[in-house]
Amino acid sequence: MFVFLFLAAVSSSFSQGIYRNFQEQSNKNNASGMLVLGGWAITNIATGAIGWSNTTGTEKYFYQMNFMWNLVNLGIAGYSLNTWENINPWKFNQQQIMERHIKFENIYLINTGLDVVYAGTGFLLRHLSESSQKRPDLLMGYGNSIILQGGFLFLFDGLMYVIQRNHKARFIKNLDLTIVPNGAGIHLTHSF
Question: Is 67 exposed, middle or buried, given 0-12, 13-18 or 19+ CB atoms closer than 10 A?
Fold first, then answer.
C-alpha cells in the first residue's frame, strides 16, 4: 500500500511538473511577443511624434495615427507583461494551465481576424479620401497608417497563434495516456 501511495505521489508531482514547464514556456512565448509589440509601439511612437511635428498634409496624419495607435499597443504590451510577471504559476492546476493556454491561443486567432478588418478600414479611408471635399489628407494619412498597423498586427498575431499552437501540439504529442489494465486509473508519461 505504501509503495502504491508513493508511486501515486511521484506520478502526480511529475505530471504537475511537466504542466508547469509547459505553462512556463507558454508564458515566455507570450512575454516575448509582448516585448516585440512593445518595441514596435515605442518605435512608432517616437517616429510618429517626430513625423507629426515635422511634416504636413497626408504625411502628418500618417504619423499622427501611428503615434496614437501605438499608445494603445504600448498599453496592451505593458499591461500584459506586468500581468504575466505577477502570476503565481502554482495556483493553477493542470486543466487550468491548458485552458489559459488555449484562451490566449484563441485571442491571437481572433485578433488576426480583427487585423484584417483594421487593414480593410484603412483601405476604405483611402478610398473615401478620393471624394472627400473636407479632409482628404486626413483620410489618406489615417488610412495608410491603419493599413500599416493592421498589416503588422496581422503578421504578429498570426505568428503568435502559430507559435502557441505548435507549443501545445508538441506538448500533447509527447503525452502518453494509457488506462491501467485493471481499469483503476490512468497512467501519464511525457517523452523528452
Answer: buried
Could you give the CA distance from residue 78 to residue 35 in angstroms, rounded to a whole number?
9
For cell 471635399, the residue is 133
Q: In whole angstroms, what is the distance from residue 84 CA to residue 27 CA? A: 7
pTM over 0.85: no
Q: What is the mean pLDDT of residues 168-191?
A: 64
Give pLDDT, residue 173. Answer: 82
Eight-state DSSP code of residue 89: G
Determine the Cα–Cα distance for residues 40 and 38; give it in Å rounded to an integer: 5
Which residues does 158 contact at the CB level (< 8 Å), separation at least 6? 108, 112
The C-alpha cell 486543466 sits at 95
Cα–Cα distance for residue pair 142/63, rounded to 1 Å = 8
Cell of 51: 513625423
Could you give the CA distance from residue 71 to residue 76 in angstroms, rounded to a whole number? 9
d(CA 34, CA 51): 25
Collapsing DSSP to helix, strand or coil, 138 comes out as: helix
Q: Report the mean per-residue pLDDT for the chain.
A: 86
Q: At 189, which helix (H) or strand (E)? A: strand 186-190
Q: Which three cell numbers stand for residue 93?
A: 492546476
